[in-house]
Amino acid sequence: MKLLEVQSSVRLERSVSRSLSHEFVQAWQMNHSHAQHKMRDVGTNPPAHPTELWTQANYTPPEARTLEMVGVLSHSEQLIAELLWADCLLLGVPMYNLSVPSNFKAYLDNVVRVDRTFAFDCETFTLQGLATGKKALVITPSAGDYAPGTPMAKFDFCEPYLRAILEFIGIADVTVITVPNQFMPDEIRHQQIETARTKLMALAATW
Ligand SMILES: Cc1cc2nc3c(=O)[nH]c(=O)nc-3n(C[C@H](O)[C@H](O)[C@H](O)COP(=O)(O)O)c2cc1C
């Protein structure tokens, strides 16, 4: 088993997604003794945003790319290789302004690439995800509560977006652990963390 952990909170010490992920990985490794684990921290080390040259390179067939194009895509290629290497993805993705952190979006812009992680047939208008055979576990804390049926549910562009973009590249087996109410008083906040921790510890044995 090969686990790629991607963290996107800009916080280190006080990050709920990072600390829960850390606990999960430790418990998961106890149950998967020969597992390999790689960490990609886009919260503190975000990939560059696409540029005009990057875009041109992306849509140029590999054999026709100039050295400059190859260079501008090299980090993206490294991130894609790492993603394709993994069987399991653990994604720490807090809600930022109703969606994913911009650092994580920059990561996605680098890994969701035509003919690398998805293919699109322009004649039949069909999409094919190329990052298949993987599962993903997402830990997503938020200040508010966006659970279905709550007044805030309609503002959630984080979980639905994550599910959609993962499915887009071929990953439909997605488990999302939300950690809501992180701006509430400590008692409520900690209760939510404990609920998430319990779910994660159960998953560590079975996932
Ligand atoms: C830039 C920024 C934007 C945020 N936007 C939202 C938001 O739209 N809705 C929400 O519920 N929480 C929002 N939050 C709160 C975070 O989701 C919350 O603090 C979460 O615990 C952060 O994850 P972390 O603990 O792993 O750092 C925002 C936090 C930051 C830093």
TrEMBL record:
<comment type="similarity">
    <text>Belongs to the azoreductase type 1 family.</text>
</comment>
<keyword id="KW-0288">FMN</keyword>
<feature type="binding site">
    <location>
        <begin position="15"/>
        <end position="17"/>
    </location>
    <ligand>
        <name>FMN</name>
    </ligand>
</feature>
<feature type="binding site">
    <location>
        <position position="9"/>
    </location>
    <ligand>
        <name>FMN</name>
    </ligand>
</feature>
<dbReference type="GO" id="GO:0009055">
    <property type="term" value="F:electron transfer activity"/>
</dbReference>
<comment type="function">
    <text>Quinone reductase that provides resistance to thiol-specific stress caused by electrophilic quinones.</text>
</comment>
<dbReference type="GO" id="GO:0016652">
    <property type="term" value="F:oxidoreductase activity, acting on NAD(P)H as acceptor"/>
</dbReference>
<feature type="domain" description="Flavodoxin-like fold">
    <location>
        <begin position="1"/>
        <end position="200"/>
    </location>
</feature>
<dbReference type="InterPro" id="IPR003680">
    <property type="entry name" value="Flavodoxin_fold"/>
</dbReference>
<dbReference type="InterPro" id="IPR050104">
    <property type="entry name" value="FMN-dep_NADH:Q_OxRdtase_AzoR1"/>
</dbReference>
<comment type="function">
    <text>Also exhibits azoreductase activity. Catalyzes the reductive cleavage of the azo bond in aromatic azo compounds to the corresponding amines.</text>
</comment>
<comment type="subunit">
    <text>Homodimer.</text>
</comment>
<dbReference type="InterPro" id="IPR029039">
    <property type="entry name" value="Flavoprotein-like_sf"/>
</dbReference>
<feature type="binding site">
    <location>
        <begin position="95"/>
        <end position="98"/>
    </location>
    <ligand>
        <name>FMN</name>
    </ligand>
</feature>
<dbReference type="GO" id="GO:0016655">
    <property type="term" value="F:oxidoreductase activity, acting on NAD(P)H, quinone or similar compound as acceptor"/>
</dbReference>
<dbReference type="InterPro" id="IPR023048">
    <property type="entry name" value="NADH:quinone_OxRdtase_FMN_depd"/>
</dbReference>
<dbReference type="GO" id="GO:0010181">
    <property type="term" value="F:FMN binding"/>
</dbReference>
<keyword id="KW-0285">Flavoprotein</keyword>
<dbReference type="Pfam" id="PF02525">
    <property type="entry name" value="Flavodoxin_2"/>
</dbReference>
<keyword id="KW-0560">Oxidoreductase</keyword>
<keyword id="KW-0614">Plasmid</keyword>
<protein>
    <recommendedName>
        <fullName>FMN dependent NADH:quinone oxidoreductase</fullName>
        <ecNumber>1.6.5.-</ecNumber>
        <ecNumber>1.7.1.17</ecNumber>
    </recommendedName>
</protein>
<keyword id="KW-0520">NAD</keyword>
